[in-house]
Amino acid sequence: MASSGPQPVTLHFQDLVRVAGETIAGSVDLHVALAQENRIEHLRIKFRGSISTRITTQNGQTRITHRQTVPLIHANKSLWTQGTVFPEAGSHVLSFPFQFQLPTTLPPSYHCDGHSRGGAISYSLEVVGDRPGIFRTNTRIRRVFSVVPAASDSQLLTKESLRQGWDGSWKDTMREDKIRQGLWGDYSRVSASLLLPDLRSFPIATPIPYSFHITTETKILDRSDRPEDKHAKPLFPAPPTQSSKFTQTLRRHTEVRVHGRLRHLEDAFDLQGIRNIDTASARAVQAVIDEPEWVPRDDSKGRGFWRRTVHFNSTLAFPFAPTFRTETLDWMYVLQFVVPFPGLGNDLKIQLPIHFGPGSACPPPPIGAPGSSSLTYADVLPAGPPPMIDLPPSYWAGEDHDWTDEKS
Known about the structure:
Blueprint: E1 9-12, E2 18-19, E3 23-31, H1 32-37, E4 42-59, E5 62-81, E6 93-101, E7 110-114, E8 117-130, E9 139-145, E10 147-148, H2 153-164, E11 170-179, E12 188-197, E13 202-203, E14 208-217, E15 221-222, E16 247-258, E17 261-270, E18 286-289, E19 293-298, E20 303-316, E21 324-325, E22 329-339, E23 348-354, E24 356-357, H3 393-396
Parallel strand pairs: 2-10, 13-24
Antiparallel strand pairs: 1-3, 3-6, 4-5, 4-8, 7-8, 8-9, 11-12, 12-14, 14-20, 15-20, 16-17, 16-22, 18-20, 19-20, 21-22, 22-23
InterPro entries: Arrestin-like_C, Arrestin-like_N, Arrestin_domain-protein, Ig_E-set
Protein name: Arrestin-like N-terminal domain-containing protein
Organism: Mycena alexandri
């Protein structure tokens, strides 16, 4: 509970994304006088991580929610007991440092929620001030944090190559279709091509360059029908000239399992608003509009079609949990571009599976910890802590965390 005055217990823990394998550290302050006033007799800290899944079934009017929890971390550390003498016992505030080692195999933090199904992979620290007595509740400070897997050397090199400007090969995904404005009439043609770096996996939260080319061809018409004629009805189909006119969506498919039961869940994320996650290397969308090209079909009658092409170049960043499989939760992603054209069923859609991997190195242990050195976070490539990943408020509220030992 927030309060402007001093608290008997305070947790100091930096709000950063953590990398599997690293040593996390912090401290807990105990205000001696307030602890005595609040009858706190023992101070401890708990470190928890788990995969929690739920599936709700219905049989007639009966609804049953089935749950399964897979523990990942379960560690406890005693910090202080009333009557224990410390060197700074005369101080008004006692400070107790703590450290925990994250296993190298931890899955990334994750959260999904849908009708009658959902799951979370969550991590937390909790400081407990024990207040023995029938009508007393323990003092608790709970801090939920996020974890990502550590990137390998090759993954870090891939990330750096992307940040410095991709000069490798590209993979082209194409789609074309025939469309028409109404139920009758001749068909026009539309096509699109999406180029991404030819990689098996893309590092999360890293600007990925892309090129998106859209080409339209009108139905057969007279050459006198020109696309630049502002007084005539626009020639169908006209390619979009702004990136806001087509959608860029990341679709996430999740499998949720609870004791043999299986459910599927799908989420969609609009990528327009997160393109510039890394302002240092991101770029605005560049649109290049080619001059309309007349393609003759019957020179004697002056008939043919107009071909128009627009090229879009920019970057996309994906601040989401890396693709992962666990015992009860696994997920995959599909990238989808949709170009809308007037008329029923005329939208042109390109979609392709996309795999995400980690993009952050495991930092060295804090100075003074076993195996530590004089290195700091800034000495690890890439510099600085990992960027935040996209997790909903319910993850940070711990709503799906398994607090099975709430009374302990």
